[in-house]
Amino acid sequence: CLNVSFPSLSELTLKCYAESPRRCRSLCREWSMPSLTTLSIVNILPNLPYDVLLKVQTLSIDANKEASLGDDDSWRPAEIIAFLFSCASVTDLRITLRLYGARFQSDPRLTMDSVQRLTLDIQNSKTAMETNILHLIQFPSLTSFKLNLGIGDLEDLEEALRLKREALNLCPPCHPYLHHSLLNLAINLSDRY
Q: Can you give the pTM of this predicted structure?
């Protein structure tokens, strides 16, 4: 797909579900997209021409949700930040990602002045406790901020309770292990939630 021209393309979505998203990174490095203003990327930080990235005004980045700390396929904070800063004209930014190994404090030199609208998606309580983009980059021109807190933990809790109820319904009220089952459930729930 080298040297492809899309003169009227205004919106591009790139999703990479390959084992190694780094292999797909250069797929569109020579694409001509002079009208591109909206870019949505999932699990990939593409090498796009610099002049294309400068025209992007709406950017959605979704990365590292399934990766683990130290995983070779996870995008490092420095790579993510470098990509964000290569999109210097972005006014509307949506971020759904995990930053592994990032330092916790903001560097006053790291500011994205062009961003006016920021949406930060945090997928669950574990991710909420980790370093996020707000710890690393300042957004002094924000006029709109949305924080979407994931409900994955609540869905997991509801499913666990449903399954435990079904298991307890199979157990007679005077069963010798009923008390232990209830105690085990209480301990597991208190550890996680």
A: 0.71
